[in-house]
Design goal:
This protein is an alpha+beta fold. It has 23 helices and 29 strands. The protein has six domains: 184 residues, Beta-Lactamase; 107 residues, Beta-Lactamase; 132 residues, Beta-Lactamase, CATH 3.30.450.20; 179 residues, GAF domain (Beta-Lactamase), CATH 3.30.450.40; 60 residues; 144 residues, Histidine kinase-like ATPase, C-terminal domain (Heat Shock Protein 90). Helix 1 packs antiparallel against helix 2, helix 1 runs antiparallel to helix 10 and helix 20 packs across helix 22. Bound molecules: adenosine-5'-diphosphate. The site of adenosine-5'-diphosphate has 20 residues, from helix 22 and helix 23.
Length: 857
């Protein structure tokens, strides 16, 4: 067989020295088996006469078994104690010689006779064939099979097969042995009957004629005889065109010289192979491959050569196929999967038969060390063994398992994440024979997963921080929150936030955290704002407006940083990130670590995200602080204004009273003529004085309004309305006005004087600015959980829309023909706003006005 020899393989201490060979010999033997059966059937078809010559026996053995890679065969006849060799071993000479030695050990044969069953033995050639015998390493461990040839119940003989390829018979031996035994029997019969004939005369030609193989008898390179099989093989109808012709007639031109040379050598008694292949030529000139076995025979009174021909086109095809499948397997092992998969081929018990280069590369375990290892494998982690066993167990049901993530470790103990796929391998009889474990290094993927996990974790923390920050308005709380979140995702030993005040060029440290001791440290005790020290990280960042990473050597001459008074340690990795708000640098967030070269690009990016969030929060806090301080300022200013108004009004009233008093005296005592101009002027002065007094009183009321807002109680609005109506009863009567009070009982937490002022002004205006014949004022109150809504509706003169704002300004009056100072609505508005309420109105000239007051509860 022209199967390529495998490269030498180191024998392992585990016996079968070619594990991979075992696998490909399965493939090969399966194919051979088919071939074998095919050929055997052909031979026996041709032996209907039941007479078999010795030549046929040897040709059978030679053709069927000879040449099977690593298999030799012999047939023994057994007659009682007598064991005789019926058919020769057919194998390369050196091998044959060795086997002859073995043959002498007939105890095996006796065992077969006793048991009537095939016996499979592996003999260690080391013992029988010492290394100096020259036996190739691959034959040192040889399986031997002895198959009884049964004649009824009697063991008539033994077929002995020897060869490494037999290891591949796994799972098919019974079938194979039985067949072999069955058609070995006629061979034995032929032998024992001593019906070995010599091909001497044409009387035996019918036998040869009936043979399945093409037979040609040649002498002096001339064809003496061809049988039917040969004729049909070469496309001749009769023998005549070939007889007495040169053998060249049936040889392709390219092979003629070689074959003829060989024949010559043989006739000269030289040692030439009795079996070879050549390219044959049919009658029509087409070429095909034949295999020929030649032997010398006496023929028609002289020596001749009989050559049995076999068309090996089919065999070639099978060989090609074999080569392909073998090649494929080799590719699978060493080629395709080496791209990234480590491969471990084991038998069903888990013993390693083969590993590939990738396995060596990945684990650092040498092939020679891995092969023969049994479970538990050293490259599995102890803690994952059980998981692996469970997984492999599933293989029996599922036949192939995919994507099992597990760890291997290399010779250095480093963990490797692998994803395994395991498949059962089957022989031709569909029996599982081996497991192929493919492991792909997924450390990269794992790393990626780890990175993703980290990223997710960071995102989560950032998200939580942003949520936390929305509810924080105090700068210190914000700084604490930033610290608490950052410590979850970044390593550092010290944490700082310094806020920068651009207008003054100063910085203020608001947090300094000692991570190791988990405590806040005052970095600049009681200094508060301080000028930026040039050359510091903070100064650099504020200047450059970008993040700064400083890596220091433990013994660098840079100024020593040991923020927490720990003189023994100094910060070696320092990261400063500017915080921006609306293009302005508002501060610097920085972290420091005692570990050298700790921070990478990803840390900078992450800290920048924190700095951005912090910046927004600080800016918001700052705005809030400003708003608060502004509103406090405003409150203070309002109070000042009220005080001023009060004082001024009070002081103004004094001289006014004096003026009015003296005017009255003047009018009474010094003006006799009541109709004189002087009297008129003085009366006018008195009138103006009292009007001014009214204004001043109103101002006083307005300035005092805010004073009592703290003195609140639950006030019945119904009672307040009744009081107001009582106060206004004269004008109500005078104008014959109809007042509709609200339905239901309502109360409100407020100062009673203030709410009365509101209602009184609104109701009196409704009556006052009303020229209807039947004036009415309707008061309604609605409330819900959040507010009380009071409306005061009249059918009065109405207000032009453009004056809706103006009427709330103090001393602004639209109708001067009515009594009033124009302070009423200003007072109402001020009170409503004191309660954080709202006032608005709807009005239509000539139809009436509705004021609404909404007060929060
Ligand atoms: P006064 O009532 O002292 O004039 P107010 O501040 O109460 O001052 O009102 C300011 C101006 O708004 C009034 O002069 C009047 O022109 C207009 N006004 C107020 N209430 C009404 C109303 N219910 N209907 C029509 N005009 C009104």
């Amino acid at each position: 067989m022209p199967l390529k020899r495998r490269p030498k393989h180191r024998a392992s201490k585990y016996g079968t020295n070619r594990p991979l060979g075992q696998r490909d010999s399965i493939v090969r033997t399966n194919k051979l088996f088919e071939l074998f059966v095919h050929l055997a059937e052909k031979i026996f078809d041709g032996q209907k006469a039941g007479r078999i010559s010795e030549g046929v026996i040897s040709s059978f053995l030679a053709q069927v078994l000879h040449g099977v890679d690593g298999v030799a065969a012999a047939l023994y006849s057994i007659d009682g104690d007598v064991i005789r060799l019926a058919g020769e071993y057919a194998y390369p000479k050196r091998f044959r010689h060795l086997l002859v030695q073995y043959r002498l050990r007939d105890s095996h044969l006796k065992k077969v006779v006793r048991r009537k069953k095939a016996v499979v033995t592996t003999f260690e050639n080391e013992k029988i064939f010492p290394p100096q015998s020259g036996l190739p390493a691959r034959f040192r461990s040889l399986p031997v099979v002895e198959i009884p040839v049964l004649d009824g119940r009697r063991v008539a003989g033994v077929v002995e097969l020897v060869g490494v390829s037999l290891a591949g018979l796994v799972g098919m031996e019974e079938l194979f042995f039985e067949k072999l035994s069955r058609f070995s029997l006629p061979l034995l019969h032929a032998f024992s009957e001593k019906k070995s004939r010599r091909i001497e005369s044409p009387q035996y030609e019918p036998i040869i004629e009936g043979m399945a193989d093409g037979v040609v008898i040649v002498r002096d390179l001339r064809i003496l005889y061809v049988n039917a099989a040969l004729r049909s093989m070469f496309g001749y109808d009769s023998a005549a065109p070939l007889l007495n012709k040169s053998i060249e007639t049936i040889i392709a031109p390219e092979d003629r010289e070689r074959v003829i040379e060989r024949s010559r050598s043989r006739s000269e008694g030289k040692n030439v192979p009795s079996r070879y292949e050549y390219k044959a030529m049919r009658k029509n000139g087409t070429l095909f491959d034949v295999e020929v076995v030649v032997s010398a025979v006496p023929y028609e009174g002289g020596q001749a050569v009989v050559a049995l021909h076999r068309d090996i086109t089919l065999k070639r095809a099978i060989e090609k196929e074999l080569q392909q499948s073998e090649q494929m397997f080799r590719n699978v092992i060493d080629g395709v999967l080496t791209v990234g998969d480590a491969l471990v081929l084991t038998n069903l018990e888990g013993k390693v038969l083969q590993v590939n280069n990738e396995f060596e590369r990945l684990t650092g375990i040498k092939k020679s060390d891995a092969i023969g290892k049994e479970f538990p494998y050293e490259w599995l982690l102890d803690e994952e063994m059980a998981r692996y066993v469970l997984w492999i167990k599933e293989l029996r049901e599922k036949k192939s398992l995919r994507d099992f993530d597990i760890h291997w470790k290399d010779t250095g103990g480093k963990m490797i994440s692998v994803s395994m796929n395991t498949t059962l391998l089957y022989n031709a009889l569909n029996r599982p024979v081996a497991m192929m474990n493919m492991a792909r290094d997924i450390s990269e993927r794992k790393n990626l997963e780890e990175i993703n996990r980290l990223q997710l974790e960071r995102l989560r923390v950032l998200y939580e921080l942003s949520r936390t920050l929305t509810s924080l308005l105090k700068i210190n709380e914000i700084a604490d929150a930033v610290y608490r979140h950052l410590v979850e995702v970044l390593p550092f030993d010290a944490f700082f936030i310094d806020l920068f005040e651009e207008t003054t060029g100063t910085v203020r440290n608001i947090i300094c955290y000692d991570t190791i001791n988990e405590k806040k440290v005052k970095v600049q005790p009681d200094k508060g704002e301080s000028a930026i020290r040039p050359g510091t990280g903070i100064a650099k960042v504020i200047e450059a407006r970008q993040s700064l990473l400083e890596n220091r050597e433990a013994d660098s001459p840079e100024p020593v940083r040991h923020p927490f008074g720990d003189k023994g340690r100094r910060s070696l990795s320092l990261l400063y990130i500017p915080m921006f708000s609306r293009e302005k640098t508002i501060g610097v967030l920085s972290i420091q670590s005692y570990t050298p070269n700790l921070y990478k690009e990803s840390h900078i990016r992450l800290l920048e995200s924190f700095a951005n969030l912090a910046a927004i929060a600080f800016e918001k806090a700052k705005l809030y602080e400003e708003t608060i301080s502004k509103s406090i300022q405003l409150q203070n200013r309002n109070k000042e204004l009220d005080d001023f108004t009060y004082v001024v009004s009070h002081d103004l009233k004094e001289p006014l009273i004096t003026v009015e008093g003296y005017s009255r005296i003047l009018l009474k005592d010094h003006v006799q003529d009541k109709n004189s101009a002087a009297s008129e002027y003085i009366q006018s002065i008195i009138q103006s004085c009292s009007r001014m007094k009214g204004l001043i009183d109103d101002l006083l009321v307005l300035s005092r309004v805010s004073r009592f807002s703290e003195l609140t109680e639950t006030v019945s609005l119904n009672d307040v309305i009744n009081e107001v109506l009582d106060d206004l009863k004269f004008s109500i009567q005078e104008k014959r006005a109809e007042i509709v009070a609200p339905r239901g009982e309502f109360s409100y937490q407020c100062n009673p004087t203030q709410i009365k002022l509101v209602l009184r002004n609104l109701i009196s205006n409704g009556i006052k600015f009303n020229s209807d014949e039947r004036p009415f004022v309707k008061i309604t109150i609605e409330e819900n959980e959040k507010r009380v809504l009071i409306s005061v509706q009249d059918n009065g003169i109405g207000i032009e829309k453009k004056f809706f704002d103006k009427i709330f300004v103090i001393f602004q009056r639209l109708n001067t023909d009515h009594e009033g100072s124009g302070a009423g609505l200003a007072i109402v508005k001020k009170i409503v706003e004191l309660y954080q309420g709202q006032i608005w109105l709807e009005s239509e000239i000539g139809k009436g006005t509705t004021f609404y007051v909404s007060l929060p509860k």
